[in-house]
Design brief:
The complex is a heterodimer. Chain A is an alpha/beta fold. Chain A contains 20 helices and eight strands. In chain B, strands 3-2-4-1-5-6-7-8 form an eight-stranded mixed β-sheet, sandwiched between helices. Classes of the chains: A alpha/beta, B alpha/beta. The structure holds guanosine-5'-triphosphate and magnesium ion. The site of magnesium ion has 6 residues of chain B, from helix 9.
């Protein structure tokens, strides 16, 4: 991994919260500090990060986080939800004009990938059964027209060009006439890369827009763009009123925070992402995937999902009641363990839990074996013993040890620790009485 | 050690105790019970205390950020897109801030305090310097301020420029092509400006009365060869080329033979843009680099990595991975004629000693400048028109 992932960092934060059952507001702030750093390292614009974090804080503190017993997960969940929403909750499709030809205009900085994207888009539109036309309006960069022609021939889409001696506005105008005459129902105009502060060239784009009245102006943005993405996107949007964004070079290892910056300043949807140099490497944009990529916490998110799937709410509530009344017994515990096992290898699982205290786990390997030992011991208990651990005397312990193939010492330790855990849970539930909704085991 | 132990992080020593008899266990249990009751009281108190403390802290923080938050809240409640519109407003302000430059920020402060440091930190991060390098710079700055007992905010900028200049002052920024034949390999990710830079470089070197030859080893991208040929025409320099999709190694090989035969002073090789995380493309580059070393041992070598100033933190990764397959001898930072500050080179130079040799400031043939650390550092904080 190129970056230390957010989950690693959160792990660090939670490491400090030794023995605390749940996070305080201060802890939320601390966790958000890490989120903030993660966003900045992903190249999300500083101001965007600041507003975003404030919004999260508002939502997290006092509500979900403090009331929940899985605060670490809760923070991440909120962050991810907000981020996904910011990225655009639903997928945004390309729109078509009711009166053909539908005209798309590709704009952006130099080297952002407009020509390649134009070709990819033409290929996709062709697959829809339409008859697209590519238009070469980059008369400035050496061999740009040739590049589009090569791309066009590869995807078998004709390219309209008038060489580099003509004005791009005239070329665009002529191209539309050509399209109408030749029954092209889609026109894709490839324009020259330009700086957003180049007034003359920005005016040229505006003129093209005024003349051809495109259905959509698509801003092509390099996913590796840094803090400046907001200036670029805002300028293009102010001048032209863009309709959507294509994020290119996402097959690299950038976290792609520019996506968030661009989205935040333009409020325009990201419609496609470019994932390679080949002409089929253009895909629809998935806001949720992008959100977790920017955060770099896919592992945590999938854990949250898993946990939600396999944890039975009703059983949890029963459990809560039992714990409140100190009725939690080895039967329940066994069930809990099996719940956890359903979620996957325990090692991996523990590592993924942000709220997990990893201090001890760090220096002692947790292995499936140990879990199996605990399970074996409990399974060697009679139902009676499991429900009422108090009756487990010395001779019963010896029997359990023999039955499970573990030594007496281990059995003793398990029983003792179980009682301690019970008390701890009782404390946890007692302290927060009336404050929180449902109970979950501390290791959930 | 058992699972519980790890999960609940109980006192290690206590749990590491050897085998306990039943009696001991019972005894211990009641102790534990007592202990834990006490503990629970303590914990409760502690928690409450923390809540109180936290509330106070929050209040303070809130007043600091009160304007923003309140505004945002208003926006949030009044309209659906409030968050966005607020953001846009904020960003417009930001842009003005950048345009105004750090000078104005400094002017608005009468003494050096935390707030001022924060403003500077913000400016550095907004220049793509990255969190780590920014914190490093700020630490250095604070130390210098203490050391030199500086109290005037105006002095701060000078120090900051010094600090950054120092970081950027790495190695030899001259091209290593003065004597004997030389070969320059130009590499980088897609679209950063390699081919354009080669055109500009050819122009600069030719002006120095040297014989230049270009190798069109980007055989992959559509019309890349033609693009280089146009630059060859512009600069009056020959281009060695094969067909599209030919083996780039073969192009390099031929170009080296041609350079030898023609007694060329400097051979400049264009390569296809490639993302640094593509294993096979990076191996291809390693091969190209090897061919140059093997076939042209007598030549001086320059491997120039082209970086786009618009790029954020990923550029750091680019340098690291390109460095694994070639011996990068210098960096060229392009597109500094935009609004991006290119601060990522500071992060790069605070980790690696690779000199920045040139900067690109436009698409024209003359738009290549030698890199000057001090000027660059000053431009980071310059008042723009
Ligand atoms: N504004 C500006 N544009 C530049 C600069 N350098 C290059 N460009 C432009 O950036 C675009 C890409 O430049 P190329 O030289 O084709 O980049 P490349 O790295 O060779 O691209 P690939 O070979 O496709 O990977 C072109 O439109 C150039 O004119 C610069 O310093 N400033
Ligand atoms: Mg090139």
């Amino acid at each position: 991994m190129a970056f230390e992932s957010l989950s690693d960092k959160l792990q660090e934060v939670f490491k400090k919260l030794k023995g605390k059952g749940r996070l305080t507001e201060k802890d939320v702030n601390e966790a958000l500090r890490e989120v903030k750093l993660a966003l900045l390292e992903a190249d999300v614009n500083f101001k965007v990060v600041k507003s975003f974090i404030n919004k999260i804080k508002e939502r997290a503190v006092g509500h979900d986080v403090l009331e929940s017993l899985t605060p670490g997960q809760q923070v991440i969940k909120i962050v991810n939800e907000e981020l996904t929403e910011l990225m655009g909750s639903t997928q945004s499709k390309l729109t078509f004009s009711t009166t053909p030809p539908t005209i798309y205009m590709m704009v952006g900085l130099q080297g952002s990938g407009k020509t390649t994207t134009s070709g990819k888009l033409a290929a996709q539109i062709k697959k829809m059964g339409k008859k697209p036309l590519l238009v070469a309006c980059d008369v400035y960069r050496p061999a740009a027209i040739k590049q589009l022609q090569v791309v066009g021939s590869r995807v078998d889409v004709p390219v309209f060009s008038m060489g580099d001696a003509n004005n791009p506005v005239d070329i665009a105008k002529a191209a539309v006439v050509h399209a109408k005459n030749n029954k092209h129902d889609v026109v894709i105009i490839d324009t020259a890369g330009r700086l957003h502060i180049d007034e003359e060239l920005m005016n040229e784009l505006y003129e093209i827009k005024e003349i051809v009245k495109p259905q959509e102006i698509l801003l092509v943005v390099d996913a590796m763009t840094g803090q400046d993405a907001v200036n670029v996107a805002a300028s293009f949007n102010e001048k032209l009123g863009i309709d959507g964004v294509v994020l290119t070079k996402l097959d690299g290892d950038t976290r792609g925070g520019a996506a968030l910056s661009v989205r935040a300043v333009t409020q325009k949807p990201i419609k496609y992402v470019g994932l390679g140099e080949k002409l089929e490497d253009l895909q629809p944009f998935y806001p949720d995937r992008m959100a977790s990529r920017i955060l770099g916490m896919g592992d945590v998110l999938s854990l949250i999902e898993k946990a939600q799937e396999s944890f039975d709410e009703k059983k949890a509530q029963e459990l809560e009641k039992k714990i409140r009344k100190m009725e939690f017994d080895f039967e329940d515990f066994l069930e809990q363990m099996q719940q956890i096992k359903k979620m996957g290898p325990i090692n991996q699982l523990l590592g993924m839990i942000p709220g997990m205290n990893m201090q001890k786990l760090g220096d002692v390997e947790v292995n499936e074996k140990e879990l199996a030992h605990v399970e074996a011991i409990i399974q060697s208990m009679t139902i009676e013993e499991r429900r009422n651990p108090d009756i487990i005397n010395a001779s019963r312990k010896r029997r359990i040890a023999a039955g499970s193939g573990r030594d007496l010492q281990e059995v003793n330790r398990l029983i003792k620790q179980f009682e301690q855990m019970k008390k701890m849970m009782k404390q946890l539930t007692g302290m927060a009485k009336g404050k929180k909704g449902k109970f979950k085991l501390p290791f959930m | 050690m058992s699972l519980f132990n790890k999960w609940f992080n109980k006192d290690k020593d206590k749990l590491n105790q050897e085998e306990l008899t039943q009696e001991e266990l019972m005894q211990e249990e009641s102790n534990v019970e007592q202990e834990e009751q006490e503990e629970s009281e303590e914990v409760k108190e502690l928690l409450e205390l923390e809540f109180e403390e936290q509330e106070q802290v929050e209040e303070q923080e809130e007043t600091e950020e009160v304007e923003e938050v309140v505004e945002e809240e208003k926006a949030l409640s009044s309209e659906k897109n409030g968050f966005f519109s607020k953001l846009v407003k904020g960003l417009t302000k930001t842009r003005n801030n950048i345009m105004d430059g750090i000078d104005n920020v400094l002017k608005s402060f009468t003494k050096i305090d935390e707030e001022l440091y924060e403003e500077l930190e913000e400016a550095l991060i907004m220049a793509d310097i990255g969190v780590d390098a920014t914190l490093k710079i700020m630490d250095g700055l604070r130390e210098k301020v203490k050391e030199k007992k500086i109290t005037d905010p105006a002095e701060l900028k000078k120090l900051l420029v010094e600090e950054i200049t120092e970081i950027l002052n790495k190695g030899n920024r001259e091209l290593n092509i003065s004597e004997g034949p030389a070969v320059i390999l130009v590499i980088g990710v897609n679209g950063v400006g390699k081919t354009t830079t080669i055109g500009k470089l050819a122009h600069v070197i030719k002006k120095d009365n040297k014989k230049v030859l270009l190798a069109a080893a980007d055989t992959f991208r559509a019309a890349a060869i033609e693009q280089l040929e146009i630059w060859g025409n512009r600069t009056g320099v020959d281009v060695i080329r094969h067909q599209e999709n030919a083996d780039p190694g073969a192009v390099i090989f031929d170009a080296i033979q041609a350079a030898k035969a023609r007694k060329t002073d400097v051979l400049i090789c264009d390569t296809a843009g490639r993302l640094h995380n593509k294993k096979n493309l990076m191996e291809e580059l390693r091969k190209i680099f090897k061919i140059i070393s093997r076939e042209y041992p007598e030549a001086r070598k320059e491997v120039l990595l082209v970086l786009d100033a618009t790029t954020g933190q990923n550029a750091l990764q680019q340098v690291k991975l390109f460095k694994e397959v070639t011996d990068i001898s210098g960096i060229i930072l392009t597109k500094l004629d935009g609004t991006a500050k290119g601060g990522i080179i500071i992060a790069i130079n605070s980790e690696m000693d690779i000199p920045i040799k040139y900067i690109g400031v436009g698409e024209g043939i003359e738009d290549l400048r030698p890199f000057n650390p001090k000027e660059f550092a000053e431009a980071l904080f310059a008042d723009e028109e």
